[in-house]
């Protein structure tokens, strides 16, 4: 679809204002005061982008309407225009839409103009000649690919930032010396700070109650390139000591080639307390089990006096034997039958149950 920006056709611009272009349905602004050159540019664009929406600008008025009706995904402009020049167009577009791709397609510029355009952010500078038309198409493809890669990178950075800010586990980047380069809110909270910015420039060594603990996991990280499940302690700002578990890797920063450590710190104080309580309970149960005495097997008992014979052949009173072989103890009294038999006068005065 081709649109010229005049009042009768301005609705054409409005229809494509929302969102990022899908597939090849890009919105392209073609700025050139030569109608034949505009026609050639549009024809070349449709070779690779049949669904592209080119909007043609031929004068200052239509340019202003276009700029107020944007944004556009790509601007292709001539350098020498009878009312302005391509550098002015470039500046206006970049001021409105910094991410928009701009290609200068001209036959009147020179090397000096090309260099200046590059400084101001033009994506490519293509000479206006038949042999360069195909290069124009390639430049457009490359510009869109770069913009899509940039969008992907921004989306990835946004996802990473959201994860970094919201994950309930402490995350960090540091130098091998322990100096903290970046920290998320969870790590700041664990160490008693308001946010991660307060940790920047501080050293992990300062948060270890025992310096040897810091030296140990740092040296292992240097040797192995990564550490996992390192249990140590951190001393928070308020003096409380927390049990933590560290996972970290040594990485090379792609920008400055410097070695940095990236990792996580998880507060396991609750888990350690639960483990200690469980161990204490197990020990108490084991101790109790060792003290338990039980009576098992066949016990030889006298049918008359009810004495029990022990393993040495000695006959023991029933209560003595049970007390010796268990934790049971006896108190002595009389049952109602024995009271009636032995003390009938007392039995008569007892309340009858």
Describe what you observe in this structure.
This protein has about 350 residues and is α/β, with parallel strands linked by helices. Helices cover about 40% and strands about 20% of the residues. A 6-stranded parallel β-sheet has the order 1-3-2-4-5-6, with helices on both faces. The protein has a 5-stranded antiparallel β-sheet with strand order 8-7-11-10-9, sandwiched between helices. The longest helix has about 35 residues. The radius of gyration is 44 Å and the shape is rod-shaped.
At a glance:
This protein has 353 residues and is of the alpha/beta class.
Give the N-terminus to C-terminus distance in angstroms: 109 Å
Major beta sheet, strand line-up? 1-3-2-4-5-6
Q: State the secondary-structure class.
A: alpha/beta
Please outline the major beta sheet. 6 strands, parallel
Low-confidence stretches: 5-23
The mean pLDDT is: 83
How many β-strand runs? Answer: 13
% residues in beta strands? 15-25%
What fraction, in percent, of the residue positions are helical? 40-55%
From the spread of the alpha carbons, the general shape counts as rod-shaped
Radius of gyration: 44 Å
Instruction: Give the helix tally.
Output: 12
Write the layout of secondary structure elements.
Elements: E1 3-4, H1 11-14, E2 27-31, H2 35-48, E3 53-57, H3 60-69, E4 74-77, H4 86-96, E5 101-106, H5 111-119, E6 124-127, H6 133-166, E7 170-174, E8 180-183, H7 185-190, H8 211-224, E9 226-235, E10 241-252, E11 259-267, H9 269-291, E12 308-309, E13 315-316, H10 318-325, H11 336-342, H12 344-349
Parallel strand pairs: 1-3, 2-3, 2-4, 4-5, 5-6
Antiparallel strand pairs: 7-8, 7-11, 9-10, 10-11, 12-13
């Amino acid at each position: 679809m081709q649109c010229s920006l005049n009042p009768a056709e301005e609705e054409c611009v409005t229809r494509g204002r929302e969102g990022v272009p899908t597939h090849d349905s890009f919105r392209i602004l073609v700025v050139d005061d030569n109608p034949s050159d505009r026609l050639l540019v549009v024809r070349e664009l449709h070779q690779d982008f049949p669904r592209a929406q080119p909007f043609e600008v031929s004068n200052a008025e239509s340019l202003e309407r276009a700029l107020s009706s944007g944004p556009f995904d790509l601007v292709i402009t001539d350098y020498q225009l009878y009312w302005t020049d391509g550098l002015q167009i470039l500046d206006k577009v970049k001021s409105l839409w910094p991410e928009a791709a701009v290609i200068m397609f001209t036959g009147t510029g020179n090397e000096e103009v090309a260099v200046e355009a590059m400084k101001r952010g033009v994506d490519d500078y293509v000479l206006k000649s038949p042999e360069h038309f195909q290069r124009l198409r390639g430049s457009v493809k490359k510009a869109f690919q770069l913009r899509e890669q940039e969008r992907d990178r921004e989306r990835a950075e946004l996802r990473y930032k959201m994860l970094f800010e919201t994950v309930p586990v402490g995350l960090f980047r540091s130098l091998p010396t322990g100096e903290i380069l970046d920290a998320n809110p969870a790590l700041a909270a664990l160490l008693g700070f308001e946010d991660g910015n307060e940790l920047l420039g501080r050293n992990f060594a300062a948060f270890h109650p025992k310096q040897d603990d810091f030296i140990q996991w740092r040296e292992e990280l240097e040797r192995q390139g990564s550490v996992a499940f390192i249990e140590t302690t951190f001393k928070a700002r308020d003096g409380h000591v927390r049990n933590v578990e560290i996972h970290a890797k040594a990485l090379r920063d792609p920008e400055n080639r410097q070695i940095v450590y990236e990792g996580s710190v998880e507060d396991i104080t609750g888990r350690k307390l639960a483990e200690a309580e469980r161990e204490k309970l197990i020990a108490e149960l084991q101790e109790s089990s060792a003290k338990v005495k039980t009576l098992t097997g066949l016990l030889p008992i006298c049918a008359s006096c009810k004495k029990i014979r022990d393993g040495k052949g000695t006959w023991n009173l029933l209560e003595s034997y049970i007390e010796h072989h268990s934790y049971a103890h006896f108190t002595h009294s009389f049952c109602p039958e024995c009271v009636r038999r032995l003390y009938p006068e007392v039995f008569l005065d007892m309340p009858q149950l």
